[in-house]
Every structure is written in structure tokens, then in C-alpha cells.
Amino acid sequence: MTQGINTEEPLTPFLIRATAIASLGGIIFGYDLGVISGALPSLTFSFSLTAEEVESAVAFLYIGSILGAIGGGYACDVFGRKKAIILTDGVFLLGSLVLAGAPSYGAVLLGRILMGIAVSVSAIADVAYLTEISAEGHRGALVSCNEVCITLGFLLAYGTSYGVTSAIDFQEGWRIMFGLSGILAVIQACGMMGMPESPIWLDKMGRSEEAKIAWSIIREGEEEEADYEYDDDNDSGDKNSSQQTDALADLSNSNNNHSSDGEHYQPPAYNELYRNSQTQQDDHDTNNSFTDHSNTHVENASTMHLFLIHYRQVIIAAFLAIAQQLCGHLNILNFAPEIFAQVFYGSAYKISSGEEDEGADAEDVEQNQEEHAKLIAPTILLGLIKFLVIVFVIKKVDVYGRRRLLLCGIGLITSSLFLLGIIFAVNDEKDEDASFDTTTQILAIVGCIGVVAGYSLSYGPLTWLITSELFPAHVRGRALGASSILSAAAAILISYTFLSGQSRFGRAVPFMIYFFISFGSFMYGYVAIPDTAHCNADVDGGRSVDETFEQMWFWKDGGKCACCWRYCCCCFGFGGVGAGRTDALSEVQMEHCIMKGNSGDQEVPKDAEDQ
């Protein structure tokens, strides 16, 4: 029996409208992440901020993001996708009002935390809603629209920053920049009022009649077909419906995707994994009795035990989540005006430092406004490059493969950071207060573009795509949630390294630190990260994932860090994984389970028992 919307269903006006409204969350998301870049100069001027206070204004959004990542999935499941989106819009609006009317620096930090919470929850709710109202034939494209809208939000933020800085009082411009996101939030909330709740969520909550009505609205009045979708007359249908709602519930919980620049990209691969697992589930249950038996126990295991079982996936996911922030891309975007000030004027704080601006007269302020408008203009180019590269990756990721794009992107980031480090080091030796010559200015802009393009080619969309493809459904949500928190924590850390690092160690030092981190990331990615295009962790007990790992030297026979990981398993009492077993696993049995990535109830080979 077919569940959900028919895969050959045409793209209806309703779906187009729903996608446009839900994807507004992506635009708000990207706008609030990108607007800080243009707002920092006037914010710094207004409150006479130090370098550390400027860095905190950036970092506090990611503190809020961690809070949102912890509770966002719960809110989405308890209140429903529609209500979660509307509540998120309310938090966006509250945050924008707090920021726009902030009387002090402390109020600014509070507003940034609120925005961080909203950004994180939006990453879950918007994509979960789009996924659950879409036909399978359109789902990937519709969910990808949200990713594109995130980059459009960045571009809108940079364009708005330039326009506001050019036309409005310099000291108050940051209030308008922050406040505009509230207008977008109101528009989305009003639009969502007229949308139905996700029928998948309604059915999961036992509200089948409401789910039928929602399907009917989505199908634009095709009630007869909607009734067929929820025919409860045969047990097979009940089983498949339950599997579908469980899978999509896990999907909604797992879309805590922080990327980027702190971006929270939502991988289209979720949809492929969902479709593949559903079409093959019946045969899999019949022909693979061991996997069915073990999954019962594994799904009841604790999160720690599950992470220990999937240790190779955990290591890769943690690496990607942290490395994507430590490459410094976040600081290139957020502090772009300061970087361009160093390139064109010789000192980032010659213009914006509060200490130097305290005695500024009206003529000085007007000059600051004109100069900052020129410094913000190149960020529009960065936003455009980011948008174009993301569109390219979405269209070509299955053609070129995850691994190739990831390594190419990290390589581009590494070489661009090296270029920036050399440029600033050479210029500092000449005269730190002098502007760069024309050729060096062009090279510096090329270096910044290279970092942004490389990130959008690799970490931005692929971190969450690769992570989602490596983990099976019963742990995928927790894996992505943990990755989101790690990514936000790394973003907080890296935000405090740029201005402070330049002030204490020289302008070139942060770039060179990011370069060495990125170079190490490239080397690790080359030996340890496989191409996951053909991995399906939900079929055959994740055999395709294991086979992919075994083809790589680094992970062959369990991996070069297997001994350390087995020691951790002993410390955490791995024997508890097999829920329902009364005997603890022996060390040899545990080793076998860890090496194969399966649960403690797998049949242990004879040679392992003999040992």
C-alpha cells in the first residue's frame, strides 16, 4: 500500500506556496547569521566596544544556538511542526526587537542569544515541515530550496548592510539591520497561519482524522485519495505507516544542522535514506533475521553505547563538526569589514574603535559612514559567491561525489588561508599602518573569496550530508544533535581568536593558525573520510557503511585508533548494549562487536570465542 503522497504527484500550487512560506525561515536564518558582519562597525562605534566585546557579540549567537539545539527537536515533536515554526518566528521577532531597541551592550548580547535559539529551532522545524508535506518525487528539491534560501539570507544581509550604512545615520544603522529580520518573521508567521499541520506528525500523535483533512488540503481537495492514504484495513498498512511516521519523526529531530558560518544546513540525503529504507524494509526484515534481532536491542541502548558501537562514524562526524568552524571561515565572514579595513586602510580599528571615536565630530562620523559603506560592499561579492557555489553543490554532489568535493573545498580553504597569511605577514614587516598596494589588495580579496567558496563547496553542505549517511535511523538524530552542539561550541571558541589574536600576536597569526588547522584537516580527510554516496546505514545492518570503511587504509580492520576506542568501551561498560542479555560481554566479544560496528547480540565467530 502506498503511504504518503504519490511519488508522481504534480507540483501543486499549494506545495509551491507552502515551500515559499516555510523557506522564509531559511532566509531569516541566513540573514541573522550574516547581518552581524555589516552591523559590527556601527555597533562598535555606538558602544565603544573593545575587541573582546566585539567577539562576544558574534559568539553569543552560538551560545543561543546550543540551547536551541538541545530543546528544538523536543519542541518540534511536542507542539508540531506548524506551531514550532510560528513559535520560532515569535522568538525571531522578540530577538529583533530586543536588538533594535537595545539600550546597552548587555541587551545586545541577550538579543543575540534569542536569535541563536531561534536559528537553531528554525533549522529543525522548517525542514521537517517541508519534508513531511512533500511528495517523494519533489521532496529533495523542496528541501534543497531551504538551503538555497539560507545563502540568499546571507546575500540579503550583506546587501541590506550596505544600503543601511550608505543611507542612514551611522551610529544607529545597526539597530535597523537587526530589526529588519523581525519583519520577515511576521510575514512567515502570518503565512503559516493558513497552512495545515504536518499530516505525518498528526498521524503519529494519533490524530488520524485531522491527518486525513491535512492530506486533503495538501492534495487540494482530493479527499478520496487522502482516505486511501490512511486506510487502516490491513496490518501491513499499519506497519508501514508506523515505520514511515517513526522515520520522519527521527528525521525531524535530526535536522539540527549547524553549518556554518554556523550555518545549519539540512542534508537532502535524508530523503534518499528514507526512501531507500522504506522500499527495502520488508525484504530486509524477512531475509535478515539477525539484523532485526539486534536492532531491537540496539535501539534500546543508551546514546553512549550507540556512539561506542558506531565509533568510526562518531569520530568522522565530530571531526567534521569541529573542523568546519576551526578553519576560520566564520571569522572571514563575520569580520569581513575589519579585514577589508586592514587591506584598504591599514588598521581595522582606525575607523571603528570606540576609544578612537569618542571625540569624533559630525564630519568624522560622516566620513566613517562613507568608508564603512565601501568596506561592506565587498561582502556582497562574498555572499554572491557563497550562493552560486551552494547551488552548484546541490546540483552536482551526486555527480562528483562527497569525498571529492569535500577535499577540493578544504584544499581551496587551505591554500586561500596560506595566501592571506603570507600577504598580511609581508605587509606587517613593511608597515602595519600602511594600506596594501593594489595588487596585494586584489590578492587579499581573492583569498577571502577562496575561503568562502571552499567552505560552501565542502563543509557547508557536506558535513551534515555525510554525517546523515553514515548513521542508521535509530541514532542519526542524536548524532546530528551532538554534531550541532560540537559545531556551535567550536564556533564560540573560534570567534574569540581573530581580533584578540591579531591584537596580541600580529595580523597574520590567526590566518596562519587557521591554515595549519585546515591543512591537518585536509590530511585527515584524505586518509579517513570515505565517499558516502553509496552508503545506506538503514539497510543490511549498515553493511555498505562497513564495507566502505574497510576499503580505506585508515579504517581497515577496525581502524588505527581501535585499541583506544576498545579501552573506552571497557571504561563505559559496553556489555550493557545488549538489552535483555544477562551475561556481560567478554573483552574479545566486545572487540568483535566494536570492530564490526554491530550490537552485543551478534553471533560471535567461533575463533573469537576460542580466544
From TrEMBL:
<feature type="region of interest" description="Disordered">
    <location>
        <begin position="224"/>
        <end position="269"/>
    </location>
</feature>
<dbReference type="GO" id="GO:0022857">
    <property type="term" value="F:transmembrane transporter activity"/>
</dbReference>
<feature type="transmembrane region" description="Helical">
    <location>
        <begin position="442"/>
        <end position="467"/>
    </location>
</feature>
<keyword id="KW-0812">Transmembrane</keyword>
<feature type="transmembrane region" description="Helical">
    <location>
        <begin position="406"/>
        <end position="426"/>
    </location>
</feature>
<feature type="transmembrane region" description="Helical">
    <location>
        <begin position="84"/>
        <end position="103"/>
    </location>
</feature>
<feature type="transmembrane region" description="Helical">
    <location>
        <begin position="56"/>
        <end position="77"/>
    </location>
</feature>
<keyword id="KW-0813">Transport</keyword>
<feature type="transmembrane region" description="Helical">
    <location>
        <begin position="141"/>
        <end position="164"/>
    </location>
</feature>
<keyword id="KW-1133">Transmembrane helix</keyword>
<keyword id="KW-0472">Membrane</keyword>
<dbReference type="Pfam" id="PF00083">
    <property type="entry name" value="Sugar_tr"/>
</dbReference>
<dbReference type="InterPro" id="IPR020846">
    <property type="entry name" value="MFS_dom"/>
</dbReference>
<dbReference type="InterPro" id="IPR005829">
    <property type="entry name" value="Sugar_transporter_CS"/>
</dbReference>
<comment type="subunit">
    <text>Homodimer.</text>
</comment>
<feature type="transmembrane region" description="Helical">
    <location>
        <begin position="176"/>
        <end position="195"/>
    </location>
</feature>
<feature type="transmembrane region" description="Helical">
    <location>
        <begin position="375"/>
        <end position="394"/>
    </location>
</feature>
<dbReference type="InterPro" id="IPR003663">
    <property type="entry name" value="Sugar/inositol_transpt"/>
</dbReference>
<comment type="similarity">
    <text>Belongs to the major facilitator superfamily. Sugar transporter (TC 2.A.1.1) family.</text>
</comment>
<feature type="transmembrane region" description="Helical">
    <location>
        <begin position="479"/>
        <end position="499"/>
    </location>
</feature>
<dbReference type="InterPro" id="IPR036259">
    <property type="entry name" value="MFS_trans_sf"/>
</dbReference>
<feature type="transmembrane region" description="Helical">
    <location>
        <begin position="511"/>
        <end position="529"/>
    </location>
</feature>
<feature type="transmembrane region" description="Helical">
    <location>
        <begin position="109"/>
        <end position="129"/>
    </location>
</feature>
<protein>
    <recommendedName>
        <fullName>Hexose transporter 1</fullName>
    </recommendedName>
</protein>
<feature type="transmembrane region" description="Helical">
    <location>
        <begin position="14"/>
        <end position="36"/>
    </location>
</feature>
<dbReference type="InterPro" id="IPR050814">
    <property type="entry name" value="Myo-inositol_Transporter"/>
</dbReference>
<feature type="domain" description="Major facilitator superfamily (MFS) profile">
    <location>
        <begin position="18"/>
        <end position="533"/>
    </location>
</feature>
<dbReference type="InterPro" id="IPR005828">
    <property type="entry name" value="MFS_sugar_transport-like"/>
</dbReference>
<dbReference type="GO" id="GO:0016020">
    <property type="term" value="C:membrane"/>
</dbReference>
<feature type="compositionally biased region" description="Acidic residues">
    <location>
        <begin position="224"/>
        <end position="235"/>
    </location>
</feature>
<feature type="transmembrane region" description="Helical">
    <location>
        <begin position="314"/>
        <end position="336"/>
    </location>
</feature>
